[in-house]
Amino acid sequence: MSRNVVIGLAVAVVVIVGVLFASGFWSANVTDPGEMPEVNISAEPGRAPDVDLDSKKVVIGTEERTVEVPKVETEEKEIDVPVIGVTDGDKD
Q1: H helical segments located in the chain
Q2: Would the pTM of this model clear 0.90, i.e. be above it?
Q3: CA atoms within 13 A of residue 80's CA, in its CB half-sphere
Q4: DSSP 3-state helix, strand, coil percentages of the chain (rounded to 5)?
Q5: How far apart are CA 9 and CA 15, in angstroms?
Q6: Which of 18, 19, 25, 62 is surrounded by the fewest CB atoms within 10 Å?
Q7: Residue 13's closest CA among 5, 3, 24?
Q8: Which tens digits make up the pLDDT trace of 26-58?
Q9: What is the Cα–Cα distance from 17 to 23, expressed in whole angstroms?
Q10: How many helices (H) and strands (E) does the chain have?
Q11: Are the C-beta atoms of 21 and 15 separated by less than 8 Å?
């Protein structure tokens, strides 16, 4: 069976059971509510393991070096650019 069919059947069963209880066709009278079992647990608290850790030292700094850097120059020119405006419909 495909997964969708199984899910569809499960939903249908839940709906049918709900309708049967809601319509009064089925009813349930609980005479003994029952109780949860008592559980006694005694345990020693845990502890983290003892670890001897040796680590490297991280050194952060700067040093001067010569590298090639591109030179960028700009200049001003007059060009036509698009503009957007708003006017009243009657006036230009």
Answers
A1: 3-22
A2: no
A3: 0
A4: 20, 0, 80
A5: 10
A6: 62
A7: 5
A8: 777 878 888 888 888 888 888 887 888 777 888
A9: 10
A10: 1, 0
A11: no
